Amino acid sequence: MKKGIAMTLAGVLLVAGLAGCGSSQSGADNGATAESAIEKYGSDTLKLYNWGEYMGENVISNFEKEFGVKVITEYFDSNETMYTKLQAGDAYDVLVPSDYMIERLISENMLQELDLSLIPNLSNLAEGVKNLPYDPENTYSVPYFWGNVGLVYNHNNVDPAVIEEQGYEILRNTDYKGTIYVYDSERDSFMMAFKALGYSMNTDDPAQIEEAYQWLLDMNNTMEPVYVTDEVIDGMINGTKDIAVVYSGDATTILSENPDMSFWMPSEGTNLWSDAMVIPANAPNPKLAHEFINYILTYEASLDNSEYVGYASSNQEVLDELSTTTFADNEAYLPRTGYEKDEVFVDNQVLKKQLSELWIKVKATK
Amino acid sequence: MRQFRSMIYPYVVWLAIMVVVPMLLILLYAFTKEGNSVTTFRFTLENFTRFFSDAVFLDVLKRSLIIAIVTTILCVLLGYPIAYAIASGPEKSRMFWILMITMPTWINMLVRTYAWVGILQDDGLLNKLFGLFGLEPVKMMYTTFAVVLGMVYNFIPFMILQIHASLAKMDKSLLEAASDLGANRWQSFLRVTLPLSLPGVLSGITLVFLPAVSSFFIPKLLGGGQYVLIGNVIETQFLTSGDWNFGSAISLIMAIIIMLSMYFTRKVDTDPSANGRSE
Question: Which CATH architecture has domain A149-271+336-364?
Fold first, then answer.
């Protein structure tokens, strides 16, 4: 047994050695140093869990320099992946989940209340992201990007008048068989079907769900759609397909890269979504997290973010500026607000599970 | 000897924590469902009846098995001649070719599969090449062809290495003896080489079939979201719908199918002493 102990000890030493290698110094050159950061915030490391390709080129490095800290970013590709990791006990300082997921995190007490006195830049918030239904007073969250979901189409091959007239139904128009991308997410696909049928996208009426399921099945069986997520951006830039269901921010990128593409904001209504920064209840460094959230709302950081990523900024000044300069001719950049048929997703676990089950069945039907 | 025996305890503990406990958890999840306020879970066979009573899931299972079988057959057909060619070369070239075959596996599988997207897509490398010869672009992405290609590409090294290992350790004097006794080259291959390399082929089959039947990112990347295999259904249960019970039940069903197929593969292996598992 002595050998066993010795081996365990060796293991512990090895792990400790590796951990020692992990700690590193931060490259602070103008004033703020790691030491002063530790003094001020209790730590010099911020753990950020964000969507992939969702941050301006210099935002992180500028933040690190200004505050003498180090930011460790991890990426997720769906709210559910993020939730699963969070549930498994991983600790982060800042997350950027979407509306319905924030609602869920709040209801499960997984977030901490923000100290708004530490986020003076909250006054920069754009009109469109104020008083959002899932967190009207910004008690837990501060919006990051926002937008809606629409159709990007190649106006050389698809007549704008047809898309105007048919709306989402164009995804079941066999004239365009084999030329469509559909976003691979149960909520957005069912949103489309519900809206096309004239229902609320938050409905839990079994008859309406069944009808939407049949709508999607019909599309799946007659149109040979390709279900993608981020691949839709490159695919449409290269003109691989003629019609695609796309998030408005991605549409902005597509439209600025490929002049043949146009954006159509569905008249049947769409999902008015927002992603917002929150601090989890188990965040190791909430003070620095507040500093980061405040920093993202500054003009410089918001401009870098929005201009680089193409999603609508939560900073009013940046939104006004970009929609009249860089993205002036880009009909996808500025999200539609105040449209009666647009809705925000409401968290509903039972519905979500049901739709997820139905969606994999739609995709699996050949 | 007894002294050394105590040294295996850490490994036993390790195995128990990393292998046995997770397996038991899957078993527990598979046979339970979320309970009410009194008990946290209750035992049920619902997850299994749900799977087997749904034509869509059975269809997915069938599709996954067919894709895995096709992949395995292609790996044998392509892998055997390659392994044979390598094994019959001189020592130096053997080392070189084995290195060439192993080298790509040092790079993450996800990255290598992504590379195929760039090669196969509509305006990708291959289609640009076709364009040089005035050929029309061929649609390859998001097809069964792309998925099978991705799987064969990723898993064929396992097959080649296994077959090569059993061919390389074969006693060459047996072939001389065969020809002394009047067998031509074809006959001595069929009667001597092939039977002796069979254990390698069989363990190659297991090593290819296993990952092929449960892969979820190759169909997702090369087949698109509409290319749903059983691995994708399991992934969805865990990541999107959060139904761990149903996901565990499907995993268990797959584990049983794989165990059965391994059992039958082993049965074909007539000579248990010549088990080609050695590298």
Answer: 3-Layer(aba) Sandwich (3.40)
Instruction: Count how many pairs of residues, chain A against chain B, have C-beta atoms within 8 Å.
Output: 70
Is the Cβ–Cβ distance between A252 and A262 less than 8 Å? Answer: no
What is the number of other CB atoms lying within 10 angstroms of the CB of residue B94? 16
CATH number of B55-274: 1.10.3720.10
Residue range A29-146+274-324 in CATH 3.40.190.10: yes
Confidence label for B278 from pLDDT (cuts 50, 70 and 90): very low
Domains of chain A, by residue range, sit at: 29-146+274-324, 149-271+336-364
DSSP annotation of B17 reads I
Q: Taking a C-beta distance cutoff of 8 angstroms, is the pair B56, A365 a contact?
A: yes
For A186, B60, B141, B150, B235, the CA distances from B230, given in Å and listed in that order, are 18, 6, 20, 17, 9
8 Å CB contact of A228 and B225: yes
**Average pLDDT over chain B, rounded to an integer:** 89
Q: Which of B209, B200, B199 is nearest to B75 (CA)?
A: B209
Q: Where are the alpha helices (DSSP H) in chain A?
A: 2-22, 34-41, 59-67, 79-87, 99-107, 160-166, 186-196, 206-223, 231-237, 248-257, 286-296, 299-309, 316-324, 349-364
Measured over the CA atoms of residue A79, residue A84, residue A86 and residue A90, the dihedral's sign is negative
Q: How does A184-200 read in b/e, with b if 16+ C-beta sit within 10 Å?
A: bbbbbbbbbbbbbbebe
The stretches in chain A having pLDDT less than 70 are 1-31
Chain B contacts to A (CB-CB under 8 A): 6-7, 9-10, 54, 56-57, 59-60, 63, 117, 121-123, 142, 224-226, 228, 232-233, 236, 238-243
- Three-state DSSP at A49 gives strand
Contact residues on chain A for B6, CB-CB shorter than 8 A: 1, 3-4
Residues in chain A within 8 Å Cβ distance of B117: 231
pLDDT at A133: 92
Residues 6+ apart with CB under 8 A from B210: B258
CB A289 within 8 A of CB A94: yes
Measured between alpha carbons, how far is A249 from A246 in angstroms, rounded to an integer? 8
This complex has an ipTM of 0.83
Q: Cα B203–B204–B205 angle (5° rounding)? A: 90
Q: What is the pTM of this model?
A: 0.84
